[in-house]
Structures are given as structure tokens and as C-alpha cells.
């Protein structure tokens, strides 16, 4: 279980999903609600999970800007494969202000803004 300070508040998760126009930030599958509440209406029966755009261990805050809502399988894949597997992509951003770092990585999500 993650430490509480790592977790996005429920209200932030709902706001992020609204910003994404109820689409998974990665694949665009419709998500009606974060967490278990969205399972019944998800096309593949997956719960939706909140993910840090800039990882917690890289100083990423639990703010709306740093939150994306993803299908469970999309969340797995951003951690285990694809564009996000190589953590050095974050090192290249270390000298930039946090809001710029967040914006640069957020731009990699096709549905960050819906
Ligand atoms: Zn994550
Ligand atoms: Zn997805």
C-alpha cells in the first residue's frame, strides 16, 4: 500500500477525469469514474487508476496537473513498458521547473485534455 502522501485525493482524481473528458489519458477508452466505481461501465471491465505524470520519487506532486487517470492495463503498461519504461526521460527534465516538467510529460498522453 502506497504511503498516503503519494495518493491523489479523490476530488483531484475526479477533476483529472473531467479534464480528460472521461477518456483514459492513454488509450481513450471511456471511463465513467475513478477506481472501482467505473468497472461496470468500462469496455473491458477494468477499474481506473490515478497515475503520477512526474513520478513521486522524482518529486511529482499530488496535484491535478500531475494526475492522469488510466485503465488498469494502461497503468500497468506505462510502468512496465512503452515510452515511460526508461526512467532517464525524467532525468533530462530535472533542471526545469516542475510545472514545465509536468507539461512536457503530460503532452505524451493523447487524452490528457480529453
Ligand atoms: Zn502510476
Ligand atoms: Zn486505457
Report on the structure:
The chain is of the alpha+beta class and 114 residues long. It has one domain (4-106). 28% of the residues lie in helices and 9% in strands. It contains four helices and two strands; from the N terminus they run αββααα. It has helices at 10-19, 72-80, 88-91, 98-106; strands at 48-52, 67-71. A two-stranded antiparallel sheet has the order 1-2. It is globular. The protein starts with 9 loop residues before the first helix and ends in an 8-residue tail after the last helix. The model has no long low-confidence stretch (mean pLDDT 90). It binds zinc ion (2 copies). Residues 51-52, 75, 79 line the site of one zinc ion.
Features:
two-stranded antiparallel sheet; 28% helix; 4 helices; nuclease; binds zinc ion; endonuclease activity; alpha+beta; endonuclease; 114 residues
Largest sheet: 2 strands, antiparallel
What integer value in Å does the Rg equal? 13 Å
Molecular shape: globular
The tally of strands reads 2
Q: Work out the strand percent.
A: 5-15%
Bound molecules: zinc ion
Helix content: 25-40%
The sequence of SSEs as H and E is: HEEHHH
The computed structural class is alpha+beta
Layout of SSEs?
Elements: H1 10-19, E1 48-52, E2 67-71, H2 72-80, H3 88-91, H4 98-106
Antiparallel strand pairs: 1-2
Amino acid at each position: 500500500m502506497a504511503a498516503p502522501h503519494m495518493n491523489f485525493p479523490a476530488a483531484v482524481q475526479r477533476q483529472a477525469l473531467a479534464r480528460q473528458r472521461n477518456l483514459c489519458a492513454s488509450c481513450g477508452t471511456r471511463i465513467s469514474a475513478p477506481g472501482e466505481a467505473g468497472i461496470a461501465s468500462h469496455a473491458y471491465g477494468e477499474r481506473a487508476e490515478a497515475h503520477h505524470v512526474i513520478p513521486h520519487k522524482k518529486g511529482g506532486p499530488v496535484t491535478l496537473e500531475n494526475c492522469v487517470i488510466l485503465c488498469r492495463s494502461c497503468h500497468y503498461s506505462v510502468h512496465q513498458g512503452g515510452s515511460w519504461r526508461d526512467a532517464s526521460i525524467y532525468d533530462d527534465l530535472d533542471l526545469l521547473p516542475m510545472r514545465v516538467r509536468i507539461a512536457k510529460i503530460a503532452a505524451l498522453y493523447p487524452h490528457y485534455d480529453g
